Amino acid sequence: MNRTRFLLTSAILLAGAGCTAAGSMPDDAAALQASVQRGHAIAEQRCAQCHAIGQTGQSPVPAAPLWRELVMIRDVDGLAESFAEGSFVHSDGPVQMPEFTLAPAEIDDLLAYMKSLRPA
């Protein structure tokens, strides 16, 4: 999904303008919201022990980047290959990232969550 479409979809979700008269979301918006929620769960399980994965707070490991800042300076879609290969970009420091592998659907969900951290 390109950045413009993602931002537009996010704005619709946030404003509630995408709701139908029956109160349900269009399929694309509902699918995006579900993906973001699954991505958040993956981040909580696999990443939050070192990284600040939300809009506030500091990383439990000071050298671990804050995701809300990371998504502003990195090409989030470019992380997909690193996630698929289990090779992550990180600086040398006292704590190394653990190795783990993500399934393609998990990568998509994690990236959707990371993109949701960008300001609208």
Word description of this protein:
With 120 residues, the chain is mainly α. It has one domain (3-116): Orthogonal Bundle (Cytochrome Bc1 Complex, Chain D, domain 2). 50% of the residues lie in helices and 0% in strands. The protein has five helices and no strands. Helix 1 crosses helix 2 (27-46), helix 2 packs across helix 5 and helix 4 runs antiparallel to helix 5. The two termini are 16 Å apart.
Task: Give the low-pLDDT segments.
Answer: 1-22
CATH top level is Mainly Alpha
The span between the termini is 16 Å
Main beta sheet strand tally, sense and closure? none
Class from helix and strand fractions: mainly alpha
- DSSP summary, beta strand count: 0
Mean pLDDT across the residues is: 80
Percent of sequence in beta strands: under 5%
Summarize the helix and strand pattern as letters. HHHHH
Question: What is the total number of structural domains?
Answer: 1
| Architecture per CATH nomenclature, i.e. the level-2 architecture | Orthogonal Bundle
Q: Rounded to an integer, what's the Rg over CA atoms?
A: 15 Å
Number of helices: 5
What share of the residues lie within helices?
Answer: 40-55%
Give a quick rundown of the structure.
Helices cover 50% and strands 0% of the residues.
What brief labels describe this structure?
mainly alpha, Cytochrome Bc1 Complex, Chain D, domain 2, 50% helix, globular, disordered N terminus
